[in-house]
Amino acid sequence: MTTIWGLPAHALLVHAIVVLAPLTAVLEILCGFWPAARRRLVWLVVALAGTTTILTPITTDAGEWLKDQRRVVSPILQEHAERGDWMIYFSAALLVVALALAALHWLESRSDTPRKAITVVVAIVALVVGVSSIVTVARIGHSGAESVWGGR
Fold first, then answer.
1. Phi/psi at 8 (5° precision)
2. Which residues are in the DUF2231 domain (predicted)?
3. For the CA atoms of 74, 80, 83, 84, what is the dihedral angle to 10 degrees?
């Protein structure tokens, strides 16, 4: 996908990632540490993580196409593209955490007290993956903005 209604697809799709990835991360952290949130939001979190994982390679492919349209690729644009290529790993990690939260939810529905160690591990992994994903999205976005607007 290269354009949507005549606009570069990357410019439109990137906004979905910029919203969905941090939203998914925050909800995963919330669900990891608060069982009531997990009971209410776990399937939304799985859907958001799945959507983010699907949109990430589409967005990076559209970004590569857009970069290839440039005659000169600045170092900051190259850095943005390289950072963007890493987002798929963070999106996949968000999906794995969402599935772990769903499994934890399922275990909780089968018994009153799942093993405390499992709950703690899932919460900590959700925190680490969530924070690192938010930071990564911010770093990718910052380098992208710098490549477009930095010299102005």
1. -60, 125
2. 6-150
3. -130
The predicted pLDDT at position 11 comes to 85
Question: CB neighbours of 62 closer than 8 A, spacing ≥ 6?
Answer: 1, 2, 8, 9, 10, 13
CA distance 1 to 105: 37
pLDDT of residue 152: 57
Q: 């925190």: which residue's tokens?
A: 127
Tell me the whole-structure pTM to 2 decimals: 0.90
Q: Examine the pLDDT at 129 and tell me if it is beyond 90.
A: yes
Q: How far apart are CA 152 and CA 101, in angstroms?
A: 44
| Beta strand residue intervals within the chain, DSSP E | 3-4, 7-8
| 3-state SS class at 86 | helix
